[in-house]
Design brief:
Blueprint: H1 2-9, E1 14-17, E2 23-27, E3 36-40, E4 43-47, E5 53-56, H2 57-63, E6 71-75, E7 77-78, E8 81-82, H3 85-99, E9 111-116, H4 122-134, E10 138-144, H5 145-152, E11 163-168, E12 173-179, E13 182-189, H6 193-207, E14 210-211, H7 214-224, H8 231-234, E15 238-245, E16 251-257, H9 258-280, H10 288-294, E17 296-299, H11 308-313, E18 319-321, H12 328-340
Parallel strand pairs: 1-9, 9-10, 11-17, 17-18
Antiparallel strand pairs: 1-2, 2-3, 4-5, 4-6, 7-8, 11-12, 12-13, 14-15, 15-16
Helix pairs in contact: 3-4, 5-12, 6-7, 6-9
């Protein structure tokens, strides 16, 4: 009885990650493995005058390609930072209300540890803090994405050893060397998961008589897309998606092969490899053994691209996609938050 009474008045802290591709909220005090309570796209669909929100999160993502005139699709987060503070505040407020619906009458608010990109500005940090504060939180602190990721890796939990994190977000990416829980060197670039999708759209438009939308390009990417082509296994693989003839705009079925997806996304993969090479140039000699042993850990929504680890390994250093690639940063932030309390 006493335990139930304590739970009624306990407001568990939360960690918030908006850098990995979605809004991901980790809540303390839950059974191990069940701490992730919110994991939804940071998007809303509203009337063009902005007065009415029609859909948010997962639902908004599924209908974005079919919205008619007078309806606008808004990404609330761009390059890992808040791009539309008013809608972001509303969305966060709804999530906090959902998480604490049985305790809101107490007027208590959760402490928050929020994740920001490694190279974010003070202005962007302030916007994030103010938005979360207005949504009903308090005592908001920040941690950078690469540090959070290093703490959230399940297969490499010795943060005293040097390691390399490649974080492929929705529309930006970061690569950094982490040693002793500090960032030794990092670089960021303005490409991410959406660039793989757009690469397929552009390739089909330029190399065939057809055009496809981003939803169908993403379908092809996830079902047969590959960052590394193996001819013996891949040459006969293809997918049929909906598209249009370029000249007439008549709806038409479009066949996309695995080789075409590889050629379409290869420029984006090559830019990620170039960023990794830049980071490796700043590796200290004494870090080499750790990095050789542990390799490169890939996190973020872009880690779902098939064989992205094999493409990275073409440099001669092992790479692995974190099993919890989408939630590693949120889990790491939650772990840091717990250790601070």
């Amino acid at each position: 009885m006493l335990e139930k009474f304590k739970q009624l008045f306990l407001v568990e802290s939360i960690a918030v990650d908006i850098t990995s591709g979605n809004i991901i909220i980790y809540q303390q005090g839950n059974e191990k493995g069940k701490e992730i309570k919110i994991n939804e796209p940071a998007v809303v669909i509203s009337e063009e005058d902005g007065n009415k929100c029609i859909a948010k999160g997962e639902k908004a993502e599924t209908i974005k390609g079919i919205s008619p005139e007078g309806i606008q699709f808004t990404n609330l987060v761009k390059t890992g930072i808040v791009a539309h503070s008013e809608y972001f505040e509303q969305l966060m407020s709804s999530y906090i209300s959902e998480l604490y619906k049985n305790k809101r009458f107490l007027s208590f608010s959760p402490d928050v540890l929020a994740v920001v990109p490694e190279k974010t500005t003070m202005t962007n940090q302030k916007i994030l803090i103010e938005s979360i504060d207005a949504a009903g939180a308090k005592n908001i602190d920040l941690v950078t994405s690469l540090i959070a990721a290093a703490n959230g890796l399940r297969e490499h939990n010795d943060i005293t050893k040097a390691s390399i994190i490649m974080h492929i977000g929705r529309d930006y990416s970061e690569v950094g060397i982490i040693s002793l829980n500090k960032v030794h060197f990092s670089t960021s670039l303005n490409i991410g998961y959406v660039d793989f999708i757009r690469g397929i759209c552009e390739y089909i438009r330029n190399e065939t008589d057809f055009v496809v939308g981003e939803s169908n390009a993403e379908k092809a990417l996830l079902e047969i897309g590959t960052a590394f082509y193996i001819e013996a296994q891949d040459e006969n693989q293809a997918i049929e998606v909906s598209g249009m003839l370029k000249r007439t705009s008549v709806p038409h079925k479009v066949t996309i092969t695995k080789l075409e997806t590889f050629n379409a996304i290869r420029p984006t993969v090559e830019r990620l490899v170039s960023a990794l090479l830049e980071v490796l140039e700043h590796t200290k000699e004494d870090m080499a053994e750790d990095i050789h042993r542990h390799g490169i850990h890939i996190v973020g929504i872009g880690a779902k691209i098939s064989r992205i680890d094999i493409a990275i390994e073409s440099l001669g250093i092992k790479a692995r996609v974190a099993p919890n690639y989408l939630t590693a940063i949120a889990e790491g932030a939650g772990k840091i938050q717990k250790n601070r309390s």
